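Aim 2 progress. For Diaminopimelate decarboxylase, the working sequence is reproduced below.
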Amino acid sequence: MDHFLYQADELYAEQCQVAELAKQHGTPLYIYSRATLERHWRAFDNAVSEHPHLICYAVKANSNIAVLNVLARLGSGFDIVSGGELSRVIEAGGDPTKVVFSGVGKTVSEMEMALNLGIYCFNVESAAELEQLNLVALRLGKVAPVSLRINPDVDAGTHPYISTGLKENKFGIAMEEAEAIFARANELPGLAVKGVDCHIGSQLTEIKPFLDAMDRMLALIDRLAEQGIEIKHFDVGGGLGVTYDDEQPPQPDVYAAALLERLGDRDLKLIFEPGRAIAANAGIFVTQVLYLKENSDKRFALVDGAMNDLIRPSLYSAWQKIVPVIERAGESHSYDVVGPVCETGDFLGKDRQLNVQEGDYLAVRSSGAYGFTMASNYNSRPRAAELMVDGDKAYVIREREKVAQLWQGEQILP
Ligand code: LLP
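Predicted structure tokens for this construct:
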């Protein structure tokens, strides 16, 4: 459930009229709903409330500091993949002791920063990274809490670009090597083994791949216990899918119940790293129709938002619902909704039944995750403004980028 609903023929974000916000702040524009973010975060937290757990929101999905702050106020932890994301968490008032640090290529300075801030755990992805982290921790006179990200080799059944748990993917440590690398971690003086983690992919709409991964991971945890290596937490990663079209992914409570059942009476804290499931349907992307154009066999709605603002349709052929901000009565036609960027791949949606005129606003639903965070300045397009609504109030949480900011830091030769 989200808080973007029609009242009569007009789309609202909570109690704010989307068309008014677009008029006032211009387009293209991202609008997020605080109530929806909170509701989605709580759905995870409540789903495991009886069991020791930590919900670490995946910052990469939407890293605006207002979004992070709203979640931090609920007590959220954060899953980060860079020093930049860690800095955002701190800037937003997040608690570093609830941060897990994922990612295959952590640099020495990122490790130092995270150690100095006292993060909860490093999710280590290779033997080489483990050795490096040990040296950095020893140099700082610290002990780094570590989990090893194990690649369980299960097929998440999602788009190949967002599937991460197969042997052929660059992520994690192969299951066959896991025990040896855990043994090594256990003997390094700069490290303290805390947990295991996995993340098999994103936008999963079935429970089975999660359970397959969990079975393999729990078997590993049991084997490690036999070797005297005690695992205190199991980080199940993120990946729970959302409804973009007619997908029916399991709700967080059903998903968590299935995991808890598998866990049995093991004394393991559970960590979740949801990104999309919290943020995607808490945001819309609003764009205005500039021109309508027809050729022999196609109609195009040329809009002011483009692949640089929202790349998911172009990059993954992702389908996101496109709806009119104010519905018109009358006949609709099939349109390709395309942006001004000079690429054939620049589209937000294809073959959409719409009744639109020039000047109309359209909203691309489910744009709160991997929308703004993946935006670029391609074609020297300043990045969109971001708003957050809270009831009947709307706040600018990021100003529209100014053209002069585009060449900030660039230099002309003497
Ligand atoms: N944890 C780790 C280690 C991850 O790599 C990811 C996402 C997450 C958690 C959060 O996954 P989520 O709950 O959001 O599925 N840009 C793509 C998605 C890339 C996901 C990358 N990793 C998209 O727009 O579909």
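The longest helix spans residues 208-226. This observation will guide construct design in the next reporting period.
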